[in-house]
Design a protein that fits this description.
By secondary structure, this protein is α+β, with helices and mostly antiparallel strands. It is 32% helix and 22% strand. Strand 5 and strand 6 form a beta hairpin. It starts with a helix and ends in a 27-residue tail after the last helix. Bound molecules: flavin-adenine dinucleotide, (2R)-2-hydroxypentanedioic acid and zinc ion.
Amino acid sequence: LSGLIDELRTVVEPAHVLTDPDLVGPYVTDWTGRWAGYARAVVRPSTVDQVAAIVRACAKAGAGIVPQGGNTGLVGASVPRGGEVVLSLRRLAEVGPVDLAAAHVRAGAGVTLAQLQAVASDANLRFAVDLSARDSATVGGMIATNAGGMHVLRYGSMRAQVLGVEAVLADGSVLRRMDGLVKDNTGYDLIGLLCGSEGTLGIVTAAQLKLVAAPRFRVTSLVAVAGTASAVSLLARLRSLAPLEAVEIVFADGVDLVCRHAGLPPPFSQPYPCLLVVECAGSTDPTGEMADVIGEGPDVLAVAVASERAGRDKLWSWRERHTETVNALGIPHKLDVTVPIAELAGFERDVRATVSDVAPGSKTILWGHLGDGNLHVNVIGPDPDDDRVDEAVLRLVAARGGSISAEHGIGIAKRNWIGLTRSPADMAAMRAVKAALDPNGILNPGVLFDEGAGRAGSENEGSG
Ligand code: FAD
Ligand code: 2HG
Ligand code: ZN
């Protein structure tokens, strides 16, 4: 053990090989507090060559590596399980310059989303992915999780923004596809493969990222409706709006908790069962067409509209502050799922009833990205190790033809149930990819694949 640490201290400055428990602490517990482990060391390189040398040293010593960016991941994949080396990429934080003609920018893996958005905005452009962990979430982590966020319905998730990647593979070799070419059909799409690989196939050190035009106008509406079924009928009308960027859903109980936690006033003078945040952006003012579409239905109970930054931020705050509010209530069980939009209302009803049956007295808080059929099911109450609620909810998702991981990944939180929605053939192909790229299993061991298997929902039960 000390041999590896001594070797790591020859690769990066000794001050960036952390072993002191006080310094290591923030790197070994996840954002939710549900997942924590022990690390041999935390290493903080600042160049791709250092990353490659660290990987070679760990491979030689047979030490597992947990790549880490902002540690905002929500499925337990960014923290060690037992004695791995945490490889923090945060110091790879160079960004730019923006290539205006190509509309792309090079960013190091450790660049935060907020930094990237600021650089794009200075160039009168914009990075299309946005999420509320923007001040901490990094480019590398967002690629590794294929992060989604608020604007997926218009621009797609992280994978759709990535034109190029530089990554260190498990043998320490460097894969470099950084030309930023929009068209390049030369063999397998290894860039796409790394997106969503959760640190199990390679360590992203930099990326070439697509930028889009910055809209002149942006208008946000907070729309009250009677429930999920009404929200889905409104969504059907909203789809006719060309500049539609976001349709997010929250419910009265969650909004009430957010108000109490964040000290916000209630959004309307009376409570409504369900609220949507609807946002449009473009080169002309979308206020009129939004009002036409939103105003025309009997299902709309109240509307607030803002087009200036401060007003829009306020309308978003009742939605964006859900995650921190839930964390303040206890250690949550987080289930980030998609179901076909036609199934959403039924799923919402079933999920509330099922959680009450399986964990009486617990609190269920739902919200999400309605336009993507993506609900975040957060349950407070069951012990962190008691995963009966997790299993019950994920079985409901599978029964309705959904996905057990919409945008956060599988990590260790859901690996026992991956077989609910992936067939044995699918699992065998994924294992073959893992074995080819990381034959000794040193990259994020235990993530994605349940080596113990045999539990409910293991791959043998795949429903395809
Ligand atoms: P980390 O948490 O450090 O790591 C996440 C995963 O990526 C781990 O598997 C890790 O091993 C791997 N990884 C990290 N860096 C690298 C690298 N350089 N190379 C290879 N693997 C790497 N997610 C969404 O999709 N949509 C949202 O709307 C959203 N909102 C959020 C809001 C809050 C308040 C929080 C706390 C989280 C939210 N997330 C959301 C979850 C989270 O996935 C994203 O914040 C982000 O993608 C994680 O980036 P990170 O740098 O923090 O990665
Ligand atoms: C969101 O959309 C994030 O708010 C986090 O994806 C979801 O905390 C969660 O469950
Ligand atoms: Zn989300």
